[in-house]
UniProtKB/TrEMBL annotation:
GO cellular component: cytoplasm
Name assigned to this protein: Calcineurin-like phosphoesterase domain-containing protein
Biological process (GO), any one: polyphosphate catabolic process
Superkingdom to which the source organism belongs: Eukaryota
GO molecular function: endopolyphosphatase activity; phosphatase activity
Membrane-crossing residue ranges in chain numbering: none
Region Disordered, residue ranges: 134-165
InterPro entries: Ap4A_hydrolase, Calcineurin-like_PHP, Metallo-depent_PP-like
Residue span(s) of domain Calcineurin-like phosphoesterase: 40-183
Amino acid sequence: MSTSKQGKVFRITTFISDLRTNLIPPSSSSHLENGHRSRRLVIVGDVHGMKKSLEGLLEKVGFDKGKGDHLILAGDITNKGPDSPGVVDIAIRLGASAVRGNHDNAVLDAAAEIAAKGGWDQFKGLIETFNAHEHSSDNMPKDTVPTEGSEKTESATPNITMRHGPTTYRTASQLSARQIEWLSALPLILRIQLPHNIPCTLGDNIVVAHAGLVPGIPLEEQDPHAVLHMRSLARKPGGEASLTPEESSGEEGWAVEWDRWQEQLTSRTTVVFGHDAKRRLQLGKYTIGLDTACLYGNQLSALVISTTDVGIEHRIISVDCADTPVAPKSSAKEDDKTAVDK
Ligand SMILES: [Mn+2]
């Protein structure tokens, strides 16, 4: 199952990254100079450019890089919200780790397209022409404009196809070269090996992936498109073994199947993910879903992992959205209908 489905995944520089050992909570709390408040992992769900909410969450967590706290972003760091450059700047300043989300992927793709077409000033004109045309014809598909030979021949129709929604292009244009470079270097999967000689209900490893993973398939062989987009699993009729990742919500999330699979293993892996704002906080046995729909005005959430006297502990800390939210249906739909970033 290594063939990528529909939808392009922007050039991947690192598929799987391993978190540096010196950032992982230690095997004993006596190694900590300041009790359990030091050297924590703080994994945050879909920020989407909601900078004030991220700042508020870090404040509530008491995040302190000086004490060894390490920030990890679970993807969809950028796009749709008010300040994607600001959020990327926070991540860079704090030396955060992160994985790529489908929206980050779309922003990277859009940035490359803008650069290839002569920069934002030129590209902006293209978008404006496209939008003006789109609004004047309701019968058109949302993300394509007919080329020559279409039955609707309109002389004003520009011969272009928009791969993304206007919001995605705008976000791409707002990011600096350095911010784009940081975003493009993010892995699709971040692996965290937990200390083994200490009690921990999360298993031996944590894996951070934006949307999800298919049970039974090695990390190296996961489909990149599915890692960025999946929400559920479909079971092929008659085939217990074959689970197909689906973007649709389905009756139950993929995480239910992952939990079942982990129960059968001796070495277990907890997946921390985002992407599923509809299901909000998901607390499975070996799956933790952190997209609590901050973008839509709900909450931004962090999984905080730390070493205490009794073992590796984890808890969820959330804050109410502190930014101007995006309307769940209208504008979300507009951007979600594009070819690459749905
Ligand atoms: Mn997403």
